[in-house]
């Protein structure tokens, strides 16, 4: 068997849809699984709708997902050009061949393909045997000279020696037309594999560009981890068959194969994708997490360029386990960098149900004021001593202190929080909260 050659052939007419990204991904996975070649071919003959911005969004999105192509724009290759708008001479050559063979004819200035009497039958690598019959001749070159989509598509696959066509099941109706053209040109067709559609999150129907979460650009703007998005897209129609979901791409490549792709449509689940993103955030190295977080925090005005990198990494290290997204870090971590922060009303209500925490806060303030060592072990010993001296539980100190110094009822491990904030910040915030309680009581 010849080396596997697959292609992703989008039209640059708009934003990069999540369904198109999944099609590109499945082609890329199969090429990498087989040691084959992944070709990016741009179908840009619709001059009125194609734009440079759409092409840039497409290639940028593929690179963001890590889908590097082996042949195509910016890379070249032995089978170019890789833009259909530059392949006119090739199409004219094959049009002449099909006319000379008697399988096509001219009518009203257009060129029409004569369809055969028998139905076209092919063995889909995912769906098995499919039989379809074209009921009438169709145009392969319009009267204005424009090459028909189906003809250009087939000629490109022939001349680029594409061995496998992996595309959405909505292209199944096109396949009989394509097989008619292959037959008329006397060329062997590739193996077809029609992958399931992606359904919208809510309600029936295919996910369209108007549905929330349907555009790849959204996830980059929202600072999703690209590996998380890629991992999730792998599972829209395919699975490793052992109930695992979060897998390194190297293992997915090893396991991926066309017959393992599902026939049934896959439903897009934005909450599940968000969960994948959270899991990937928690696996990042602190250095990478800091690299991703710094511009988000800076843009929100939470930090400035002079922020100490070690302090940022300390904050991230103790907070990483409870992070849900990068885009929400300004709200999630803001209190680490700014002494002005809101008080969570639900956390405050829970604490004040037992009465004012002023006495406990004053006790811990006094104890921490005398500490020269702000290590976690020493801080824990200090709180345990206070509990013993005053016959109360650790929660009486921890919950109210956390609220006073962060405004939150939950967060990083308490003693880690104290250590990273540091003695000066902790004492300042405690005193401010205690003073506010003395002045306005529970209205703080």
What would you note in describing this structure?
The chain has 444 residues and is mainly alpha-helical. The protein has three domains: 5-199, HUPs (Rossmann fold), CATH 3.40.50; 284-337, Orthogonal Bundle (Helicase, Ruva Protein, domain 3), CATH 1.10.8; 345-443, Arc Repressor Mutant, subunit A (Orthogonal Bundle). The protein has helices at 18-34, 52-65, 88-100, 149-159, 172-185, 216-221, 226-234, 249-255, 270-283, 286-299, 309-319, 329-337, 345-352, 358-369, 376-390, 394-406, 414-440, and strands at 5-8, 37-40, 104-107, 110-113, 120-124, 128-132, 138-141, 164-168, 191-195, 198-199, 266-267. It has a three-stranded antiparallel beta sheet with strand order 3-4-7. It has a two-stranded parallel sheet with strand order 1-2. The protein has a two-stranded antiparallel sheet with strand order 5-6. Helix 14 crosses helix 17. The N and C termini lie far apart (75 Å).
Q: Number of domains in the coordinates? A: 3
Structural class: mainly alpha
Biggest sheet, in brief? 3 strands, antiparallel
Global mean pLDDT? 94
Rg over alpha carbons: 31 Å
CATH architecture of the largest domain: 3-Layer(aba) Sandwich
Number of helices: 17
Order of helices and strands: EHEHHEEEEEHEHEEHHHEHHHHHHHHH
- Contiguous runs where pLDDT drops below 50 for at least 5 residues: none
């Amino acid at each position: 068997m010849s080396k596997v050659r697959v292609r992703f052939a989008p039209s640059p007419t708009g934003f990069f849809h999540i369904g198109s990204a999944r099609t590109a991904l499945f082609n890329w996975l199969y090429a990498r699984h087989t040691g084959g070649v992944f070709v990016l071919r741009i179908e840009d003959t619709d001059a009125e709708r194609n734009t440079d911005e759409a092409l840039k969004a497409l290639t940028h999105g593929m690179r963001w997902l890590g889908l590097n192509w082996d042949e195509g724009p910016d890379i070249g290759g032995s089978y170019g050009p890789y833009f259909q708008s530059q392949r006119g001479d090739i199409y004219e050559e094959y049009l002449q061949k099909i006319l000379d063979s008697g399988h096509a004819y001219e009518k009203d200035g257009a060129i029409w393909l004569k369809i055969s009497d028998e139905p076209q039958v092919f063995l889909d690598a995912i769906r098995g045997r499919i039989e379809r019959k074209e009921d009438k001749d169709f145009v392969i070159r319009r009267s204005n000279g424009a090459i028909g989509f189906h003809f250009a598509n087939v000629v490109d696959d022939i001349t680029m020696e594409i061995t496998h066509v992996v595309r959405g099941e909505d292209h199944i109706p096109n396949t009989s037309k394509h097989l008619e053209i292959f037959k008329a040109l006397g060329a062997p067709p590739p193996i077809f594999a029609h992958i399931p559609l992606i359904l919208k999150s809510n309600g029936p129907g295919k996910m369209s560009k108007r549905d929330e979460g349907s555009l790849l650009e959204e996830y980059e703007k929202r600072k999703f981890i690209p590996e998380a998005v890629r991992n999730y897209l792998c599972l829209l129609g395919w699975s490793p068959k052992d109930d695992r979901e979060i897998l390194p791409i190297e293992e997915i490549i090893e396991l991926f194969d066309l017959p393992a792709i599902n026939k049934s449509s896959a439903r897009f689940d934005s909450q599940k994708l968000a969960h994948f993103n959270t899991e990937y955030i928690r696996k990042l190295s602190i250095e990478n997490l800091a690299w991703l977080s710094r511009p988000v925090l800076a843009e929100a005005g939470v930090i400035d360029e002079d922020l100490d990198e070690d302090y940022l990494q300390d904050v991230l290290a103790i907070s990483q386990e409870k992070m849900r997204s990068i885009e929400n870090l300004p709200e999630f971590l803001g209190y680490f960098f700014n002494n002005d922060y809101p008080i969570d009303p639900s956390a405050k209500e829970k604490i004040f149900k037992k009465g004012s925490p002023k006495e406990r806060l004053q006790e811990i303030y006094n104890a921490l004021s005398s500490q020269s060592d702000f290590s976690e072990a020493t801080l824990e010993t200090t709180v345990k001593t206070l509990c013993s001296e005053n016959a109360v539980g650790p929660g009486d100190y921890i919950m109210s202190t956390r609220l006073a110094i962060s405004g939150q009822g939950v967060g990083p491990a308490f003693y880690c929080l104290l250590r990273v904030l540091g003695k000066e910040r902790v004492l300042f915030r405690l005193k401010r909260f205690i003073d506010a309680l003395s002045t306005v009581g529970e209205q703080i």
